[in-house]
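An instance noted here:
***
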Amino acid sequence: MSSENNYRKVIQEEMGKLNKKVNLKVFTSLKTEENGSKVHKCVDCEQTMQLLRIYEEYSNKLLHIEETSIYDEPEFAKKNDIQRVPTIIFTDENEREIIRYLANPIGQEIQPFVKAIFAIGGGPNYYEKIINQYIERISPSTIKVMITMQCPYCPSLVEASNLFAIASKGKIRTVIVDIQGNPDIGQYYNASGVPYTIINERPAIQGMIPAHELLRELIGSNIDIQY
């Protein structure tokens, strides 16, 4: 079985469990030509949309992928601070951005992506209780997680960061960056290895950190965190 078929099978099994409607925004380079046809001006956008349509296809019509062209909707793209395409965005019920993906949800990254979809749709979130417990001590924060598709530790950190963001009611925003697909971002932050985590542009945290240490970084405390 090819890698693509393996991915499709995993996505089919996981998305079949979705029982609530979820909308995802995707900004791409889709452009309308003079003859009326629509084409993606970047290869990555085409590949990302093909992948996301697989998620949508197996969701029992509960996942809706809303594709927005930076050419057709430049002001909307500017309003959402879209610096590059493709960009996948999760928003909450108030249309606030809480998760941004500059990475494809494929391979090992399927599971954390699916768990974020379930949680944004109102499904179980393992970290909701603990985030609510400490929410008053968390300042508005952005967690940037640099990853590669080959990294065995990245999915766990991506999952925790995303679920923190979903549970935080808008206080935490997560940005997931594949530094192989976006090498300039990796170079800008001197990401020599992954996972590589930056909270509010403070000095980077190199390597894997468990969820309780990530929470300590957010609240700035050495207290004993119990789940």
